[in-house]
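Our platform keeps sequence and structure together, in a single record for each protein. Such a record has a labelled line for the sequence and another for the backbone structure tokens. This encoding replaces a full spatial description with a residue-level series of whole-number codes. Below, we set out a record of this kind in full and without editing:
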Amino acid sequence: MRQPLQLISLSIACGALWACSAADTHSPVETPGRPESAKTQLLEAGAATLQAKPPIEAINAYLDGFHFYNGHPDVQMEAHHYCSILNEDVIQCVIFDGNTKQAKIMGVEYIIDEKLFAGLPAKEKAMWHSHGFEVSSGQLIAPGIPQVAEHALMQRLAHTYGKTWHTWHTDQDKALPVGVPQLMMGFTADGQADPKMVEQRNQRLGVDSARTRAQRADIKIPPADAAADGWQHGNVIQLEDPTGAHLHHPAKATPPASNSRSSQ
């Protein structure tokens, strides 16, 4: 029986009280602009104290994985997901290019359970990617929580599909959010993800892929819906960029970090 997401969230929240912190992953670009003035900093501090932020406070899970541009499987990047669980079957995530205060919002991912996905039209399904392989391979991780809580979360995610749009392509050295949104996909088999990219992430966050795979061997991975992962069947959906700003250059993997750490 799959565990309710509320129980998983509780496990994550409780585990976070004593869980290890994850190593810093810094944004690969510096955004142009003037440094914050003292006035701006004062306004920022006042807003932080006085304004309620329910949608932000609802974020209760941090997932780290990898994406590639639909139609360009060789152009890959690491993606830091900060997610809120809306109900048993729907999760929404804000995707960043790092896990520090200076991280840039790259886009969003909507995650739905297989039952909801089954009811979508075939043309819609082609824009979604399955999560089964990301879970079984250990590519998708939840840094900083106890293994038992992560295992429960991955059991749920193995039965889900994600629809992801990136709006700021910092992996392409875009210092500003220029160009158009791009549809992203997830990996579905060994040999697709750049091993150097995965290994650098693993070293930085202290992940052992072989051990993670072994720990998840008991998770039953359902067959992916034949209409999902459309790129595998030649059904590539992507927005054309009229500005020519998006060139799809292979990204540089983030190197293993120093000893600086950030609590999650």
Q: What stands out?
A: The longest helix spans residues 38-50.
